[in-house]
Structure formats: C-alpha cells, structure tokens
C-alpha cells in the first residue's frame, strides 16, 4: 500500500520516522560515526566532509567549496583554518589569479582521510553485519533520497516565482 506522506492521516508512521531520525542524529553525533579502533572519533563531521569534498573534486577556492557544500563561505573559512594548521589542507595561489587562494588536500590530509574512510567503512560493515547486500543497497538508496530531499528543502529555489 502506497502512502503520500504529505497527506497521510496516520500520524503514527510519521511520528516513528521523525523519532528515529532524531535518535539517529543524536547517536551519529555522539559517535561521530567515526569508525573503530584508534581512528574512532578522531575526525569531526565538518573536517571529514571538507576533506572528502577536496579529495573528490580537487583544489578549489573557498567560495566554490562553500557553494558545493551548500554552506556559507565564512563557515568554510572557519572550518578550514584548523585543517590548514594541522597540515591536512594546503592554501596555495590560484594558478591564473595569484591573488586568489585555492584550498587543496595535502598528502598528509589524503593519508588521514584514507585512514578515517577505512575505519568508517569497517564500522558500517559491523553495524550492518546481519544485512543482505540488497538491504544495504536499499538503505543507501533510501538514505540518499532522504538526504537529497533535506538538501533541496534547505536550498533556496533558483527558479523564478510563478506568474499568476
């Protein structure tokens, strides 16, 4: 039976969903889903997401990084500072405009990110140990869909308003 979640009369399912999302958010923050072993809780969420983005998309300026993550440039600047200080991110001059700064994952940052990814991958394997491959795939697809919906809701519409 398919339900339209925006008009569903049964609030029980929606109450359960919002409660489980709240519990997930709290537990994820408590553990930082940081992995296992010595790497556990060793990298906060913001650092992981920034390093991961630089690794996946390559060097970029603060504004581009902020835009790609859907956050403010001042937030990126604040979050990147300790990563630069720790030697995980390098600030370099833009190759075409020497006045502009480009952020780049350092070799140390790449190694650290690889350690954290391995540890988090191991944690995900442990948490879903009794799941089938299909269940893992379905959970990933649904969680991705949920995160996409959250992101779309938080991103201001770029479409012009409808004309009446």
State the end-to-end CA separation: 36 Å
Strand/helix succession: HHHHEEHH
**Count of helices?**
6
The helix/strand class is: mainly alpha
- Main β-sheet, spatial strand arrangement: 1-2
Q: List low-pLDDT spans.
A: 158-164
- Count of extended strands: 2
Radius of gyration, taken over Cα atoms and rounded to an integer in Å = 20 Å
Describe this structure in words.
With 164 residues, the protein is mainly alpha-helical. The protein has helices spanning 11-31, 45-57, 62-69, 73-85, 107-127, 133-154; strands at 89-93, 101-105. Strands 1-2 form a two-stranded antiparallel ribbon. β1 (89-93) and β2 form a beta hairpin. The longest helix is centred in the C-terminal third of the chain and has 22 residues, at 133-154. The chain is globular. The chain starts with 10 loop residues before the first helix and ends in a 10-residue tail after the last helix. The relative contact order is 0.10. Residues 158-164 have low confidence and may be disordered.
């Amino acid at each position: 039976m398919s339900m339209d979640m925006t008009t569903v009369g049964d609030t029980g399912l929606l109450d359960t969903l919002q409660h489980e999302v709240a519990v997930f958010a709290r537990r994820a923050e408590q553990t930082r889903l940081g992995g296992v072993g010595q790497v556990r809780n060793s990298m906060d969420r913001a650092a992981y997401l920034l390093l991961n983005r630089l690794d996946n998309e390559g060097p970029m300026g603060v504004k581009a990084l902020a835009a790609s993550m859907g956050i403010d440039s001042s937030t990126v600047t604040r979050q990147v500072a300790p990563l630069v200080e720790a030697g995980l991110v390098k600030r370099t001059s833009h190759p075409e405009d020497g006045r502009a700064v480009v952020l780049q994952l350092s070799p140390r940052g790449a190694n650290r990110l690889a350690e954290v990814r391995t540890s988090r991958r191991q944690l995900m394997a442990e948490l879903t140990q009794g799941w089938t491959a299909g269940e893992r795939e379905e959970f990933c697809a649904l969680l991705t869909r949920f995160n996409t919906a959250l992101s779309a809701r938080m991103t201001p519409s770029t479409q012009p308003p409808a004309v009446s």
